[in-house]
Sequence to fold (303 residues):
Amino acid sequence: MRKLFLVLGIGIASIAQAHDPPDLLLLAVQFPDTNVPVIDGFDDDWSAIPVDQYGIFAETTYPVGASTREGRALEFASQGEIDPSDMNFRHLIGWSDSQNMFYVTTSVYDNLHVTNRQDPGRFYWDDSYEMGLNADHTNIDDQNSGDIANGFYYKYALPPKDGAFEFFRPNLNLPWLVNGTRYVEIAWSFTGEEFGESTYIYEIRILPIAQMPLSEEATEDQVVVWDFEEGQIIHWGNMVTDVDVLTGDDDYRHGQWSTSPGGTAGRPVSDVYLSPIDPGIEWGEPTTSVEAESWGRIKAQYQ
Fold:
Protein backbone atom coordinates (compact mmCIF):
# COMPACT_ATOMS: atom_id res chain seq x y z
CA MET A 1 0.00 0.00 0.00
CA ARG A 2 1.26 3.47 -0.80
CA LYS A 3 2.24 5.32 2.36
CA LEU A 4 1.67 9.06 2.21
CA PHE A 5 2.02 10.04 5.83
CA LEU A 6 3.74 9.00 9.02
CA VAL A 7 2.11 9.45 12.40
CA LEU A 8 4.15 7.17 14.67
CA GLY A 9 7.79 6.42 15.35
CA ILE A 10 9.33 9.85 14.90
CA GLY A 11 9.20 11.06 18.48
CA ILE A 12 6.54 13.72 17.94
CA ALA A 13 3.76 13.81 20.50
CA SER A 14 1.86 16.72 19.04
CA ILE A 15 2.14 19.62 16.66
CA ALA A 16 0.94 22.92 18.10
CA GLN A 17 0.46 25.00 14.99
CA ALA A 18 -2.49 24.44 12.69
CA HIS A 19 -1.92 22.39 9.59
CA ASP A 20 -4.16 21.05 6.90
CA PRO A 21 -5.24 18.29 6.84
CA PRO A 22 -4.54 17.66 10.54
CA ASP A 23 -3.72 13.95 10.17
CA LEU A 24 -1.22 14.33 7.31
CA LEU A 25 2.54 14.41 7.75
CA LEU A 26 4.54 14.29 4.54
CA LEU A 27 8.08 12.96 4.48
CA ALA A 28 11.00 14.86 2.96
CA VAL A 29 13.79 12.40 2.25
CA GLN A 30 17.23 13.56 3.35
CA PHE A 31 19.83 13.49 0.60
CA PRO A 32 23.36 12.46 1.57
CA ASP A 33 26.06 14.93 0.59
CA THR A 34 27.20 12.70 -2.28
CA ASN A 35 23.74 12.46 -3.86
CA VAL A 36 22.23 15.93 -3.74
CA PRO A 37 20.05 16.36 -6.85
CA VAL A 38 21.36 18.19 -9.87
CA ILE A 39 18.63 20.58 -11.01
CA ASP A 40 18.41 19.56 -14.65
CA GLY A 41 14.73 18.72 -15.13
CA PHE A 42 15.30 14.97 -14.96
CA ASP A 43 14.53 12.79 -11.96
CA ASP A 44 17.22 10.13 -12.44
CA ASP A 45 18.97 11.18 -9.24
CA TRP A 46 15.71 10.58 -7.34
CA SER A 47 15.35 7.03 -8.64
CA ALA A 48 16.73 5.33 -5.52
CA ILE A 49 13.97 6.78 -3.33
CA PRO A 50 11.17 4.27 -2.62
CA VAL A 51 8.01 5.91 -3.92
CA ASP A 52 5.78 3.69 -1.81
CA GLN A 53 7.24 5.41 1.25
CA TYR A 54 7.98 8.93 0.02
CA GLY A 55 5.77 9.41 -3.04
CA ILE A 56 2.80 11.80 -2.98
CA PHE A 57 0.28 10.68 -5.57
CA ALA A 58 -2.58 12.45 -7.33
CA GLU A 59 -5.06 9.88 -6.03
CA THR A 60 -4.51 11.20 -2.49
CA THR A 61 -4.93 14.92 -3.29
CA TYR A 62 -7.88 17.29 -2.96
CA PRO A 63 -9.72 19.40 -5.54
CA VAL A 64 -9.08 23.09 -4.88
CA GLY A 65 -9.17 26.53 -6.44
CA ALA A 66 -11.19 27.94 -9.29
CA SER A 67 -11.99 24.48 -10.64
CA THR A 68 -14.23 23.85 -7.61
CA ARG A 69 -16.40 26.94 -8.03
CA GLU A 70 -20.10 26.69 -8.77
CA GLY A 71 -20.64 25.25 -12.22
CA ARG A 72 -17.01 24.17 -12.64
CA ALA A 73 -15.81 20.65 -13.32
CA LEU A 74 -14.79 19.86 -9.74
CA GLU A 75 -17.64 21.60 -7.91
CA PHE A 76 -18.76 18.35 -6.29
CA ALA A 77 -15.48 16.41 -6.42
CA SER A 78 -13.84 14.84 -3.38
CA GLN A 79 -10.35 13.73 -2.43
CA GLY A 80 -8.81 11.44 -5.03
CA GLU A 81 -11.53 11.85 -7.64
CA ILE A 82 -9.09 12.72 -10.39
CA ASP A 83 -9.39 11.22 -13.86
CA PRO A 84 -5.93 9.74 -14.56
CA SER A 85 -6.65 9.65 -18.29
CA ASP A 86 -6.94 13.45 -18.18
CA MET A 87 -4.13 14.25 -15.74
CA ASN A 88 -2.06 12.31 -13.24
CA PHE A 89 0.97 13.28 -11.17
CA ARG A 90 3.41 12.35 -8.43
CA HIS A 91 5.51 14.51 -6.11
CA LEU A 92 8.72 13.62 -4.30
CA ILE A 93 10.17 16.04 -1.76
CA GLY A 94 13.57 16.12 -0.10
CA TRP A 95 16.10 18.24 1.72
CA SER A 96 19.85 18.57 2.26
CA ASP A 97 21.47 19.42 5.58
CA SER A 98 24.81 20.47 4.10
CA GLN A 99 23.27 22.51 1.27
CA ASN A 100 20.40 23.81 3.43
CA MET A 101 18.04 23.29 0.50
CA PHE A 102 14.52 22.01 -0.07
CA TYR A 103 14.00 19.92 -3.21
CA VAL A 104 10.91 18.87 -5.13
CA THR A 105 10.41 16.86 -8.28
CA THR A 106 6.99 16.42 -9.83
CA SER A 107 6.03 14.20 -12.75
CA VAL A 108 2.81 15.29 -14.48
CA TYR A 109 1.01 13.28 -17.15
CA ASP A 110 -1.45 15.39 -19.13
CA ASN A 111 -3.53 14.36 -22.12
CA LEU A 112 -3.10 17.91 -23.46
CA HIS A 113 -0.39 20.27 -22.23
CA VAL A 114 -1.50 23.86 -22.76
CA THR A 115 0.71 26.96 -22.76
CA ASN A 116 -1.27 29.39 -24.87
CA ARG A 117 -2.41 32.29 -22.67
CA GLN A 118 -2.81 35.56 -24.52
CA ASP A 119 -1.67 37.52 -21.48
CA PRO A 120 1.75 36.10 -20.47
CA GLY A 121 1.22 37.26 -16.88
CA ARG A 122 -1.87 35.12 -16.38
CA PHE A 123 0.08 31.92 -15.83
CA TYR A 124 -2.95 30.33 -14.13
CA TRP A 125 -4.82 30.33 -17.46
CA ASP A 126 -2.39 27.62 -18.60
CA ASP A 127 -1.22 24.33 -17.18
CA SER A 128 0.77 25.44 -14.17
CA TYR A 129 2.71 24.28 -11.15
CA GLU A 130 2.64 26.17 -7.84
CA MET A 131 4.10 25.67 -4.41
CA GLY A 132 4.64 27.54 -1.17
CA LEU A 133 7.18 27.21 1.63
CA ASN A 134 6.95 28.42 5.22
CA ALA A 135 10.06 27.22 7.00
CA ASP A 136 9.21 28.36 10.54
CA HIS A 137 5.88 26.47 10.61
CA THR A 138 3.69 29.53 11.17
CA ASN A 139 -0.09 29.15 11.08
CA ILE A 140 -1.32 30.10 7.61
CA ASP A 141 -3.46 32.92 9.04
CA ASP A 142 -0.38 34.50 10.58
CA GLN A 143 1.95 34.16 7.60
CA ASN A 144 2.94 37.37 5.81
CA SER A 145 1.30 39.54 8.45
CA GLY A 146 2.22 43.17 8.89
CA ASP A 147 5.35 44.15 7.04
CA ILE A 148 7.16 40.81 7.35
CA ALA A 149 7.05 38.03 4.76
CA ASN A 150 7.64 34.47 5.95
CA GLY A 151 5.49 32.39 3.58
CA PHE A 152 6.84 32.29 0.03
CA TYR A 153 5.18 31.18 -3.19
CA TYR A 154 6.86 29.84 -6.32
CA LYS A 155 4.60 29.65 -9.37
CA TYR A 156 5.43 28.39 -12.85
CA ALA A 157 3.85 27.89 -16.25
CA LEU A 158 6.22 26.05 -18.56
CA PRO A 159 7.46 26.28 -21.20
CA PRO A 160 7.70 30.09 -21.04
CA LYS A 161 5.19 32.27 -22.86
CA ASP A 162 6.89 35.29 -24.42
CA GLY A 163 9.70 34.80 -21.91
CA ALA A 164 7.38 34.70 -18.88
CA PHE A 165 7.38 31.54 -16.78
CA GLU A 166 8.10 32.35 -13.11
CA PHE A 167 5.95 34.30 -10.69
CA PHE A 168 6.82 34.88 -7.02
CA ARG A 169 4.65 35.96 -4.09
CA PRO A 170 4.20 37.82 -1.79
CA ASN A 171 7.16 39.94 -2.92
CA LEU A 172 6.92 40.76 -6.60
CA ASN A 173 9.55 41.86 -9.09
CA LEU A 174 12.66 41.49 -6.96
CA PRO A 175 15.57 41.31 -9.43
CA TRP A 176 17.66 39.15 -7.10
CA LEU A 177 14.89 36.62 -6.35
CA VAL A 178 14.67 34.89 -9.72
CA ASN A 179 15.46 31.52 -11.22
CA GLY A 180 19.11 30.54 -11.17
CA THR A 181 20.01 32.49 -8.03
CA ARG A 182 21.01 30.99 -4.70
CA TYR A 183 17.38 31.22 -3.60
CA VAL A 184 15.64 29.16 -6.26
CA GLU A 185 16.26 27.13 -9.38
CA ILE A 186 13.85 25.17 -11.56
CA ALA A 187 14.33 23.04 -14.64
CA TRP A 188 12.00 20.81 -16.62
CA SER A 189 11.84 18.20 -19.33
CA PHE A 190 9.10 16.33 -21.14
CA THR A 191 8.39 13.19 -23.10
CA GLY A 192 5.69 13.02 -25.72
CA GLU A 193 4.34 16.14 -27.39
CA GLU A 194 5.42 19.46 -25.92
CA PHE A 195 1.95 20.93 -26.51
CA GLY A 196 -0.04 17.72 -26.55
CA GLU A 197 -0.18 14.44 -24.69
CA SER A 198 2.95 14.36 -22.57
CA THR A 199 4.63 13.77 -19.26
CA TYR A 200 6.46 16.78 -17.84
CA ILE A 201 9.06 16.50 -15.11
CA TYR A 202 9.67 19.55 -12.95
CA GLU A 203 12.62 19.78 -10.57
CA ILE A 204 13.22 22.64 -8.16
CA ARG A 205 15.49 23.62 -5.30
CA ILE A 206 14.62 26.34 -2.79
CA LEU A 207 16.78 28.02 -0.15
CA PRO A 208 14.49 28.46 2.88
CA ILE A 209 13.87 32.08 3.80
CA ALA A 210 12.85 32.64 7.43
CA GLN A 211 11.75 36.21 6.82
CA MET A 212 12.30 39.38 4.84
CA PRO A 213 10.47 42.69 4.47
CA LEU A 214 7.11 42.42 2.75
CA SER A 215 8.05 45.04 0.21
CA GLU A 216 8.96 45.32 -3.45
CA GLU A 217 11.91 47.40 -2.25
CA ALA A 218 13.35 44.55 -0.16
CA THR A 219 17.06 43.98 -0.64
CA GLU A 220 19.05 40.78 -0.46
CA ASP A 221 20.89 41.85 2.69
CA GLN A 222 17.53 41.99 4.51
CA VAL A 223 16.89 38.28 4.00
CA VAL A 224 17.11 36.00 7.03
CA VAL A 225 17.82 32.44 5.89
CA TRP A 226 16.25 29.57 7.82
CA ASP A 227 18.58 26.79 8.97
CA PHE A 228 17.09 23.37 8.23
CA GLU A 229 17.68 20.70 10.85
CA GLU A 230 16.82 17.03 10.96
CA GLY A 231 13.48 16.44 12.69
CA GLN A 232 12.00 19.85 11.95
CA ILE A 233 8.45 20.15 10.70
CA ILE A 234 7.86 22.86 8.12
CA HIS A 235 4.90 23.97 6.05
CA TRP A 236 4.81 23.23 2.32
CA GLY A 237 2.07 23.85 -0.20
CA ASN A 238 1.43 22.66 -3.72
CA MET A 239 -1.09 22.88 -6.53
CA VAL A 240 -1.12 21.38 -10.01
CA THR A 241 -3.48 23.02 -12.51
CA ASP A 242 -4.93 21.45 -15.65
CA VAL A 243 -6.29 23.43 -18.61
CA ASP A 244 -7.48 21.76 -21.80
CA VAL A 245 -8.84 24.73 -23.78
CA LEU A 246 -6.41 26.14 -26.33
CA THR A 247 -7.81 29.62 -26.93
CA GLY A 248 -5.92 31.25 -24.04
CA ASP A 249 -8.44 34.07 -23.79
CA ASP A 250 -10.08 33.28 -20.44
CA ASP A 251 -9.99 31.16 -17.31
CA TYR A 252 -10.67 27.55 -18.32
CA ARG A 253 -9.17 25.77 -15.30
CA HIS A 254 -10.98 22.46 -14.91
CA GLY A 255 -8.58 20.57 -12.67
CA GLN A 256 -6.61 21.84 -9.66
CA TRP A 257 -5.25 19.48 -7.04
CA SER A 258 -3.31 19.84 -3.78
CA THR A 259 -2.24 17.72 -0.81
CA SER A 260 -4.45 19.99 1.30
CA PRO A 261 -8.12 20.97 0.92
CA GLY A 262 -6.88 24.46 1.80
CA GLY A 263 -4.00 24.33 -0.66
CA THR A 264 -5.36 26.76 -3.25
CA ALA A 265 -2.54 28.63 -5.01
CA GLY A 266 0.03 26.42 -3.27
CA ARG A 267 -0.65 27.85 0.20
CA PRO A 268 1.94 26.35 2.60
CA VAL A 269 -0.35 24.52 5.01
CA SER A 270 0.74 20.87 4.78
CA ASP A 271 3.18 19.55 7.37
CA VAL A 272 6.49 18.16 6.11
CA TYR A 273 8.91 16.25 8.32
CA LEU A 274 12.62 16.67 7.55
CA SER A 275 13.64 13.03 7.79
CA PRO A 276 16.97 11.64 8.95
CA ILE A 277 19.15 9.76 6.49
CA ASP A 278 17.29 6.62 5.48
CA PRO A 279 19.69 3.67 5.86
CA GLY A 280 17.46 1.55 3.64
CA ILE A 281 18.09 3.65 0.53
CA GLU A 282 20.92 2.49 -1.71
CA TRP A 283 21.87 5.76 -3.38
CA GLY A 284 24.39 4.41 -5.85
CA GLU A 285 26.95 6.53 -7.66
CA PRO A 286 27.44 10.14 -6.53
CA THR A 287 25.67 12.79 -8.57
CA THR A 288 27.76 14.87 -10.96
CA SER A 289 27.39 18.16 -12.76
CA VAL A 290 25.13 18.29 -15.79
CA GLU A 291 26.91 17.36 -18.99
CA ALA A 292 23.84 17.46 -21.19
CA GLU A 293 21.87 20.51 -22.23
CA SER A 294 22.07 23.14 -19.50
CA TRP A 295 19.17 25.11 -18.07
CA GLY A 296 20.63 28.25 -19.61
CA ARG A 297 20.47 26.76 -23.11
CA ILE A 298 17.01 25.32 -22.49
CA LYS A 299 15.73 28.69 -21.33
CA ALA A 300 17.41 30.56 -24.17
CA GLN A 301 15.45 28.71 -26.84
CA TYR A 302 12.23 30.24 -25.50
CA GLN A 303 13.44 33.84 -25.38
Remarks:
- The CA atoms of residues 208 and 226 lie 5 Å apart.
- The two ends are 44 Å apart (CA to CA).
